[in-house]
Amino acid sequence: MSDYERRIIAIHKNLGIPSDYASQSGLVLQPEDIDLVNIDDDIFCRPQKLSINAAGSWGVMKSQAEKDGVLLNVVSAFRSVDRQIEIIQKKRDQGHAMSAILKISAAPGYSEHHSGRALDITTPDCLPLTESFELTEAFNWLSENAQTYSFRLSYPRGNRFGVLYEPWHWVYYA
């Protein structure tokens, strides 16, 4: 077992995440990428990063979408394990049950954002991180074109991981 795996087990125990989380969710442990490059600032003007290959593909995909009249904006990209802990802890502090939290946020170590390959995407005039994104031209464009750039929707409706539908969450898979 690696030091990273031991760290994730300790984090889960500390947060009260079930020890069988991986087998129950079907999600795969995502190592934190350390070889990241800057991409666009997000909609909150915070700098964002992706892995080198994902960043290159994102840039080409975003440019083509713009040529097609569609604006794609980043809500978030790379997220560290420590940041994922903060997100989970904040929801716990707000009184949410861990079972409910894990339907909308992957446990630390299991978020695709750790890999530097995942993007949460929005478009102007769409509230970020909401299902209303599926009603936008941006979502339609991604649904028809993202695979050309090696991106796919991670959590469609009824996905096998039991994660709530996230039309905004796309991952680079090449």
Radius of gyration, Cα only, in angstroms?
Answer: 16 Å
Give the class from helix and strand content and strand pairing. Answer: alpha+beta
Q: Major sheet: size, sense and barrel closure? A: 4 strands, antiparallel
Q: What is the overall silhouette?
A: globular
CATH architectural label of the largest domain: 2-Layer Sandwich
Number of domain modules: 2
| The CATH C-level class name of the largest domain | Alpha Beta
Q: First CA to last CA: what distance?
A: 26 Å
How many helical elements? 6
Write the element-wise H/E pattern from the N-terminal end onward.
HHEEHEHHEHEE
* Strand-residue proportion: 15-25%
What's the average pLDDT? Answer: 97
Strand order of the largest sheet: 3-4-6-5
The counted number of beta strands is 6
- The portion of residues assigned to helices is 25-40%
